[in-house]
Amino acid sequence: MIFAYQRPIHFADTDSAGVVYFARLLSICHEAYENYLTKKGINLREFFNNNHTAIPIIHAEIDFFYPVFCGDIVIINSKITKINDKVFQIDYLIKKEEENIGKGMTKHICINPQTRKTKPFPAHFSEQFFH
Questions:
Q1: Which partner for 76 in 5, 57, 96, 110 could form a disulfide, CB atoms 3.0-4.6 Å apart?
Q2: DSSP-assigned letter for residue 54
Q3: CATH number of the structural domain spanning residue 12
Q4: Catalytic residue numbers, as ranges
Q5: Which of 87, 60, 54, 91 is nearest to 76 (CA)?
Q6: Which residues does residue 2 pair with via DSSP β-bridges, in sequence order?
Q7: How many separate domains does the chain show?
Q8: Is 0.90 topped by the overall pTM?
């Protein structure tokens, strides 16, 4: 399933050369992830402040094909793939109009925040998130 998120590039997203700063584009991909969680009915406050389950990012990458400037409208197409009962990956295709301008990826793992040990995704999360 592909989920689209659209957003303008703000001045604060750019570096001294006037192009989007690499870490900001990865942050915008995370905004797309948060927007997906919200659309799936997941309460962000509860999700990010849960004493029983945490789903941190264990790997992230971003590749640029073309520069992005202040005022550009970007569309982040996110594809979520469940790797196993503890890990999922989100692949991001970043577009400006119809042109692919970059791609990114984040890999997430489910853990118990108290023990920091991996654990399977809770059933209620899997039902909301992966369907």
A1: 5
A2: B
A3: 3.10.129.10
A4: 15
A5: 91
A6: 79
A7: 1
A8: yes
* 121 contacts 49 by C-beta, under 8 angstroms: no
Mean pLDDT by 10 residues, the chain (131 residues): 95 96 96 96 93 97 96 98 96 97 98 97 91 83
C-alpha–C-alpha distance, residues 49 and 102, integer Å: 31
41 phi-psi bin (left φ>0, alpha ψ -120 to 50, beta other)? left
Q: Which helix (H) or strand (E) holds 127?
A: helix 123-129
Residue 95, both tokens: 């577009």
Residue with tokens 């990114």: 104
Place of tokens 């509860």: 46
The residue type of 55 is: I
- 112: amino acid identity, one letter: N
Range of the domain at 100: 2-129
The token duo for 125 is 């999360």
